[in-house]
Specification:
The complex is a heterodimer of chains A (82) and B (414). Chain A has 82 residues and is an alpha+beta fold. Chain A contains two helices and three strands. Chain A has a domain of 48 residues. Chain B is globular, with a radius of gyration of 21 Å. Classes of the chains: A alpha+beta (82), B alpha/beta (414).
Chain lengths: 82, 414
Amino acid sequence: MSVDTSTIPDFSDLTCTNLMIRLKMLLKKVPDGTPVECIVRRDQRDTIDVPFSRTGYEVKIRKVDTNRFRVTLKKKTQNLND
Amino acid sequence: MSSHFFLLEDTISPERLSWIEECLKFFFVKLNPENLLHSTKNRDTIFSLFLTGDSLYSLQNPETQQIWEIILSMPSVKLVCDSQELALRGISVERLRMKNPDQVIIHNSIALNGQPSFWKDVMKQARQHEQPVPSLVGYLHLTSPYMHRSSNAMLDCLHAVLECHASIDLYCYLDGVHVGHLGQKPSEFDNIGEGLTELSEKAAKRGLQCQMLACGRCAAARGYSTWDDGKGVVVSTCAIKPLRIRNLNETIDQFRRNHIILAGNCASIQLKKDGMRATFSVLDNERSPPLTILITSHPYGTESAFGGISLAIAAASQGILTRVIFIEDGVFSLTGNHRLDKPSPLFNMQEVIDAVSGSENLQIFCFTPSLQKRGLTKNAKLNGVLDIGIADFGNLLFYSPNGVAANHQRVLFF
C-alpha cells in the first residue's frame, strides 16, 4: 500500500544545517507530544537521526522512495516513574 | 609561556577596541596579576595583536589611538603591524612606537623571497599551539575577491603556511566561495583563482596537503552549478580544480581536529589545564577546540549574522562546544520583535535563536554593554540567551570549559 506524503512538508532541498534549524523551529511551535513530520533525503536522514535521538526526541524514519524518507519527530514525554 | 593572539583585518571601531582592552585588563588584573609587577624581568609576550588591512587605520584614528595607548601600557602585549599594508596606506605609527618601542613591531620577518612577510610572523605565533609536526593550518574565508582585499591576505597567509612546512585547509564560506570561481580575469588585481591553483601545485611539490572546501549551501545560492553523482560526490562545473564544493558538515569535520584556524578577523586563546600546558597532536580529534563565534553584524543586511549562527549550529551538532556571543551591531538580532509578514525562505533570526538555544553543545550570549551603548533592551522572549558583561566574557574566553581538553579556543568574527 502506498502512503500519501503530499501533505507532509518536503525539506529535501534544504541543507543539513538549515533542515535542523527548520525542525527545531517547528518543534518549538507545536504543543508537547505533537509530532512533526517531513520528507528528507538519505543524507539528511542521517543528520537528523543521531542529534535528535540523543537530545530527547523520538525519531521514526520510514523510506518512501529511493532517496526520500519520511521523518517523524516527537518530544519524549517524561516518565514520572523514571 | 602562555600566548594568545588576535588577528584583525577589518576596520576597528572604538567599541571593538574598547572591549578588547577590557578583556586584556580582565586577563591581567583578575587572572594574571603577577604580570603587572614592574619588577618582573624577561617578560614574554602573552598577547599578540596582529593588524593588517584596514584595521591599521585604528593606529591613526585619535579615538582608537588613545585606546591603543592603554592597551600598550599593559605589559606582555605586542602589536605586530603588516609593514607592507602600512606603507600602502601611508600610515605612520611613530608616535605609538616612540612610547612603546619594544611592543610595536613594524618590521616583519623576512620570507624566503627576501621580502618582509607579516604572515611569517603570524605563522610563528600560530604554530606555537601545535606539537608535533607535521602540522596543519586552517583558514576560514568569508569574503569575495576584488571587492575585498582580504582574499589577497588569505593567499599571502596560505603561502606563509607552506613556507613553514605545514599543510593547508581552506574553508570557503558565504561570499568566500567566489575565490574558487573558474575563469577569473582581473586586470588590476592579483588573480585569486589562479593563485589558489598555484598554491595547490606548490603544496603538492612539497609533499604537503592542500584541501580547499567550499560550503555547498553558499555555493548553490551563488549559482555554482553542481550535481551529485549519486554516491554523494558533488561535482562542480564552474569552480577551479582544487576547490571541492561540499556540505558544510565536511568543513565542520575538519573543525573537530586540533589545528589552528585563522580568518580575516579571529583570535586564538590558549587554554591551560591545571597549570599544565596542554599539547595534543593535530590528529587528535577527540579534543576539538571549543569555538566562540562573535556575531558583530546587523541581522538582515548581509548574510554574516545568519552565517555565523548557522556555522555554530553545525559545529555544535557535531560535538564541538560552541558559544555564540552577540556583540556590537550583532545585538540587533536580539532587540525588538522581528516579524516576517509574508511567507519567505528568509529565516527570522529571533525564531532561529529561540529554537536553537538550549541545544546540546551550544550556548548563546548577549554582550550587554553593546545593548547599553545603543540604548536597547533584549527581547524578553529570548530567555535562552544569557546576558553577559565584560567579566563573564573574560571568563568565557580565558577559562577552559568543563570537559574540554583542547589546548586552545578558536574565536571567529562574523
